[in-house]
Amino acid sequence: MTPAASLVCDERVDVRRRAAGVRRGQGFEAFVAGAAGRLGHAAALLTTEPPGRDPRARALLTAALAVTYARWDELRGEDPYDHSRRELVARFARSAWRHHRPRGGVLSRLTPRERLVVVLRLYEGVPEEQTAALLGLSEHRVRAHCTRAVTLLTGPAPPGRPATRGRATARRPVAR
């Protein structure tokens, strides 16, 4: 091959690589546009941060999406949402000791492991078997964590803490 032909061939390869990179970026952007809201809410539930004041949840989500982007080309046939959710759960589990202190979220009365089970089983709808495999627990332990968490969330609040169901129960008197 002549040097000129080699140069033309190299340019074509570069053009193809750039086009593939653009398609990759567009595909990932479309995925993030559709999935980031739900994944962000799951992260906020895990960290028990209230909406709008959730820097830990955002950091967790950003890190999970960064890993998904880095592996985007390897995900052929695999659901990117499932991959991102697994990464989010794994990152939370590794750093759960930092998220144990209640921050006022709906699930703040639960332990980090109970939050993981509740978010995966009840919010995300992940089957019991997959939740058990993802967390390295038996199916029986997943059921036990879920039952205990639901009992805590639906029961009365412990003394000294207001109930956290729905909207605030105490209302200010209306000045007339």
Q: Could you provide a short overview of the structure?
A:
This protein is mainly alpha-helical and 176 residues long. The chain has six helices and no strands.
Q: Helix and strand layout, with pairings?
A:
Layout: H1 3-47, H2 55-70, H3 80-94, H4 112-123, H5 128-135, H6 139-154
Helix pairs in contact: 1-2, 1-3, 1-4, 2-3, 4-6, 5-6
What features would you describe in this structure?
This protein is mostly helical and 176 residues long. The protein contains six helices and no strands. The protein has helices at 3-47, 55-70, 80-94, 112-123, 128-135, 139-154. Helix 1 runs antiparallel to helix 2 and helix 4 packs across helix 6. The radius of gyration is 22 Å and the shape is elongated. It starts with a helix and ends in a 22-residue tail after the last helix. Mean pLDDT is 81; it is low at 163-176.
Q: What attributes does this structure have?
A:
176 residues, mainly alpha, elongated
Strand/helix succession: HHHHHH
Strand proportion: under 5%
Number of strands: 0
The whole-number mean of residue pLDDT values reads 81
